[in-house]
Amino acid sequence: MTSDNHGIIEAGRAIRPYLADWFAPQDAAAFDQGIAALLTTANPADAGTQAGQLRALLEGHPHTGRFLRDVLADAPHYRPPDQQPRYQRTPRPSPLGDPGPVAADRYNCPRGDYTWYRPDLGSAIPTCPTHQVTLVRG
């Protein structure tokens, strides 16, 4: 699998929690189901085809296309834009030094089709919307 294909698949996993912010509920659910179908039914040996289909789906809308481009620009980490240091504001350095942004914990569906980043320690860890299983830190 090429790194670009890996990044596209990571973007597909990571974009799912953001869809409700960009689309009406019914449209977000349909888009999410389309992504989930591509991520769960694809043959792992055929990652190039899977990545191509995901790219076409994500590039079909301005918000999701921008998300994909931003995730691919974050190689090799492939994080959502709001988890990338360039989009995070840090306070001015204090006399004790500048610790910089702290990376959010990443949680994945054990079946590989959903990724969620925990925004703060008080946030409850959700279940995968596709499989209804607890996400695993990783």
From TrEMBL:
Superkingdom, natural source: Bacteria
Annotated protein name in UniProt: Uncharacterized protein
Segments for region (Disordered): 74-105
